[in-house]
C-alpha cells in the first residue's frame, strides 16, 4: 500500500467498529495500580482500560478520586473498583479460583512481555509504586510476574506506560 492510499478513519467509522455503548463493568481484565505515586498515571491508565475493555481498581487515597475525575477524558463514566486496603483486596482476589493475578515486576522467573499469553480467564494486573515496585507481601500473592525488556539505561518504565503495554498484551490486542 502506498503512503497516499492510507485513509484516516472518521469518528463515525470508529463508532460503528467499536462497542455500541459504554459498559457498567467488564470484570474480566482489571488494572490495579494499588500503590499509585503520580496523579497523571491514573488518568492514562483509565484511558487505556477503556481502550482494551478493562476496569481500574484503585485504593481510596485522599487524592485519588480527584485525580481520576481530572484524568477521565472519556465522554462516559469509567469502570472503577475501589479497593480499600490494598493488601486485603489483593488477598481476596487471590482466593478467587477464577482469577489470575499478574504483576508487572522485575522478579526472578518473570515472564517476558512478548511471551505473555492473552488473558483467558478473569485477570488482575497489579502495578506497584513507581520507585519501590510491588511490596513483598503482595509479590507473594502473584500467580505470575511479567517483565518488560529494556535496552536503555533505565531500570523500569513509568507505571502508566508499563501498565498500558501489559494490558494490551493481556487483552490480546498486541
From TrEMBL:
Is Transmembrane helix given among the entry's keywords? no
Q: Which InterPro entries match?
A: Alpha/beta_knot_MTases (IPR029028), rRNA_Methyltransferase (IPR051259), SpoU_MeTrfase (IPR001537), tRNA_m1G_MTases_N (IPR029026)
The reply to whether Methyltransferase figures as a keyword in the UniProt entry is yes
Q: What are the record keywords, sorted?
A: Methyltransferase, Transferase
Per the record, the GO terms for biological process are: methylation; RNA processing
Molecular function (Gene Ontology), one example: RNA methyltransferase activity
Report the residue ranges that make up the tRNA/rRNA methyltransferase SpoU type domain in this protein. 37-168
The cross-references to Pfam families, in alphabetical order and at most eight, read: SpoU_methylase
Question: At the top level of its lineage, which domain of life is listed?
Answer: Bacteria
According to UniProt, the name of this protein is tRNA/rRNA methyltransferase (SpoU)
Its taxonomic path starts at: Bacteria, Bacillati, Actinomycetota, Actinomycetes, Catenulisporales
